[in-house]
Write a structure and sequence with these properties.
- By secondary structure, the protein is mainly β.
- 8% of the residues lie in helices and 37% in strands.
- The longest helix has 6 residues, at 127-132.
- The two termini are 23 Å apart.
- The model has no long low-confidence stretch (mean pLDDT 84).
Length: 180
């Protein structure tokens, strides 16, 4: 939280007290936070040079023997100095939502990037309020949601730590629509 009690927002620059580098080669961006120390807002979300800001990797950690939503620890070990976060511009992006009988929504991002088609879980906490609240949770089945900006969006793709099944999963942590 920021000193005024608000939550940081996407694209704000925040000063965060750190204890030190987490030293996790599978997630090299991770640092240990200093608990109980206040965070500070450096600047709000201003104009963003999107074409300069987003990453352009050739693919998103492809493991040729697996579905595009995961990579084995063995395959990941073969990718040297690989970040675990990318901000990319997808093609043919759609949000697909499956509402189950109990009302639980499974959100997936279906898109193309590089020469691959991806179908990744979406963990963006603002997705429901931004795009899904008009739809009742008891309305079961699949629904494709086209964002107002269409393909003019950016995705923050994150690679998870290794799960017990031996996979690192790829998730869409944030969907960003410039100008929205």
């Amino acid at each position: 939280m920021l000193p005024d009690g608000s939550q940081p927002r996407v694209l704000q620059v925040i000063e965060v007290p750190l204890l030190g580098y987490a030293s996790d080669p599978t997630q090299p961006e991770n640092w240990h936070l200093a608990a109980g120390k206040p965070w500070g807002l450096v600047s709000g979300a201003g104009p963003v040079p999107w074409e300069l800001l987003h990453d352009k990797p050739p693919d998103l950690w492809i493991d040729w023997n697996q579905a595009t939503d995961r990579i084995t620890a063995t395959a990941l070990a073969g990718i040297h100095a690989s970040p675990s976060l990318y901000l990319i511009r997808p093609r043919k992006f759609r949000l697909v939502v499956n509402t189950e009988r109990d009302g639980h929504r499974r959100r997936r991002a279906v898109f193309e990037y590089g020469r691959h088609r991806y179908n990744l879980s979406v963990t963006d906490p603002t997705i429901d309020e931004r795009y899904l609240n008009p739809y009742p949770t008891h309305d079961q089945g699949l629904r494709k949601v086209v964002l107002p900006a269409g393909d003019n969006c950016f995705l923050c793709i994150s690679r998870t730590p290794e799960f017990e099944d031996g996979y690192h999963y790829k998730i869409v942590a944030t969907i960003i629509e410039p100008g929205a």
